[in-house]
Amino acid sequence: MTKSSLFVLLTAVVIAHGQVKERPLPAGNAKAIVETACTTCHALTLITTAGHTPADWKLLVERMVAAGADVPKTQIPVVTDYLTKAFPEGNVPKAVIIPGPMKVSFKEWTVPTVGSRPHDPLATRDGYLWYTGQYANVLGRVDTKTGKIQEFRPTTPGSGPHGLVEDKDGNIWFTANSKGYIGKLDPKTEKFTEYKLPADAKDPHTPLFDQKGTLWFTVQNSQKVGRLNPATGEIKVVDSPTKPSNPYGMVVDTKGTPYYCEFTAPKIAAIDPVTMKIKEWTLTNPDARPRRIAITNDDLIYYADYARGYLGRLDPKTGAMKEWPSPSGRDSQPYGITVVNGDIWYSESNVKPNTLVRFDPKTEKFQTWAIPAGGGVVRNMMTTRDGNNIVMAESALNIVALVTITK
């Protein structure tokens, strides 16, 4: 996510929540540094309404410095200590744990590069867990059997690798969110290829292949969506009808139609794969801000309403919609979401610790687990290729994880 896009998304969440009262920074040795270094990227409310443990603040400061925050290395401990004392963990809601019939186990790995901010996970056909180290300009690959991690660095510095997807030949494709291109890595040769987007499509976000091998992608802050033909390199980008809409998460249905959610509008949209004409569905609540979506085998779309703390469902065939409040409440910020064997799994990203949530559509009951390392904002998750388990990225903690599900 670029600096400007982070600010726009933050503003959207603030608006969706109603009003967040500005709180001044307290006096302290690092006040001036925080005011200067942090507000060039985002609103001050992102700090003053937060609350973290000392370990979490340390990781967060490292991540911001890796992203370019103007904090001298000698002052990093001073800034961390200041933020820890000023904004302790108690400022955020606690996780609500609900028992249920399923069992899960977590395997978590800390990625090698400090401040990487692993954004999207990818479960590949060969059993590896890949991730994007957005702030460190890396793609990482975890051998989930041995724990060995290898990192690959895109040719262009500061690319900001974001979304990940695998093609039928095992190549790894990613969106370069900070440099306006779609990238491809051949893991066998370790060669990178770049497909530059038009000048007005600056921040590609989520990539996804359809059944014919066409790569679809959202272009976040540029208010666009696009497609790329891997055989020819041809790219076509079109405007999202609603502005601002910030096209975000994306899925493809069983017929090859791509859908995306509009984070700064209460809408889900479909793209005609031939004409690229876009159809939108307006969600029931005008304050809804869907950030990620998942799709079932019968083409029902579930969305994580980040602003209101809800799980929602849209039936594109009939337009019918239904919502359920997330277990940890209004400020839980549901985010990464996927489908495993018909059940909906997602994370509440603003509770301490973050939770993994299971929703059974048949009974409409929830079950939740605390994520062992804490989650650190699970921005995205994915079902493994066998269809039975989940991979996810714990961004602020520099961790990626494999979740094994059993009954």
What do you see in this structure?
It contains five helices and 28 strands. The strands form seven sheets. Strands 1-28-27-26 form a four-stranded antiparallel sheet, with no helix packed on it. The chain has a four-stranded antiparallel sheet with strand order 2-3-4-5, with no helix packed on it. The protein has two domains: 3-91, no CATH class; 103-406, Methylamine Dehydrogenase, Chain H (7 Propeller). The relative contact order is 0.13. The longest helix is centred in the first third of the chain and has 14 residues, at 3-16. The protein has 407 residues and is mainly beta. Helix 4 crosses helix 5.
Q: Give the rounded overall mean pLDDT.
A: 91
Main β-sheet, spatial strand arrangement:
1-28-27-26
Oligomer: single chain
Number of helices: 5
Number of domains: 2
CATH topology of the largest domain: Methylamine Dehydrogenase, Chain H
CATH superfamily of the largest domain: YVTN repeat-like/Quinoprotein amine dehydrogenase
CATH class annotation of the largest domain? Mainly Beta
Distance between the termini: 37 Å
CATH architecture of the largest domain: 7 Propeller
Largest sheet features: 4 strands, antiparallel
> Which ranges are low-confidence, i.e. pLDDT below 50, for 5 or more consecutive residues?
1-20
Strand residue content: 35-45%
Helix content range: 10-25%
Bulk shape: globular
Number of DSSP E strands: 28
Which radius of gyration do the C-alpha atoms yield? 20 Å
Class from helix and strand fractions: mainly beta
